[in-house]
Amino acid sequence: MGVPDHILRLRERVGHDLLLLPSVSAVVRNDAGELLLGRRADDGRWSVVSGIVEPGEQPATAVVREVREETGLEVEPVRLSSVVSHPHTYPNGDRCEFFNLGFHCRLVAGTARVNDDESVAVEWFQADRLPPLDRHARLTVAHALGAEATAWFLPAGTAWAESDD
């Protein structure tokens, strides 16, 4: 889908200034235990499937929609696994602080394929053979696949740059 209309309207007013945006990320595994990753069209990096929550949309609905839009797969959120705010600057200079909810999702149906203009590739990877991922994606994967029963978050008073992992 690309950049939501409401964000495009905001960008017309604020330019590249910082926006705080709600977002979701999906950690999806297939029956072989492989992880789903998409290669982003904007910067060429591999990442977990992520996207912005639309106005009026519940985060669990957003993560299902984002996976469907970007990969053609149907998933079901199983567990909220991480909650973190992290900065991101796009190649065009747009600055965001994403308030991200990471979900561990169960694959329901479909065949992974590039399904929109946000990704240039979609592939399954063995967990011990992942391509280079940014810090946020590494944390999202680690905590979705970890044994924690509750969602992981940075301790109170810790800034993204100060955290040690």
Account of the 3D structure:
By secondary structure, this protein is α/β, with parallel strands linked by helices. It is built from three helices and eight strands, in the order αββββαβββαβ. The protein has helices at residues 5-14, 59-71, 135-145; strands at residues 19-29, 35-40, 46-47, 49-52, 74-89, 95-109, 119-125, 152-153. Strands 4-1-6-5-8 form a five-stranded mixed β-sheet, with helices on both faces. Strands 3-2-7 form a three-stranded antiparallel β-sheet, with no helix packed on it. Strand 5 and strand 6 form a beta hairpin. The longest helix has 13 residues, at 59-71. The relative contact order is 0.23.
Layout of strands and helices, then pairs:
Elements lengths: L4 H10 L4 E11 L5 E6 L5 E2 L1 E4 L6 H13 L2 E16 L5 E15 L9 E7 L9 H11 L6 E2 L12
Parallel strand pairs: 1-6, 5-8
Antiparallel strand pairs: 1-4, 2-3, 2-7, 5-6
Highlighted features:
165 residues; alpha/beta; five-stranded mixed β-sheet; three-stranded antiparallel β-sheet; 3 helices; 8 strands; 21% helix
Work out the helicity level: 10-25%
Stretches with pLDDT under 50, minimum 5 residues:
none
Largest sheet descriptor: 5 strands, mixed
How much beta, percentage-wise?
A: 35-45%
Terminal CA distance: 32 Å
Tally the helices.
3
The global form is globular
Strand order of the largest sheet: 4-1-6-5-8
Category by helix and strand content? alpha/beta
The H/E string reads HEEEEHEEEHE
If you compute it from the alpha carbons, what radius of gyration comes out, rounded to the nearest whole angstrom?
A: 15 Å
Average pLDDT, all residues: 93
How many strands in all?
8
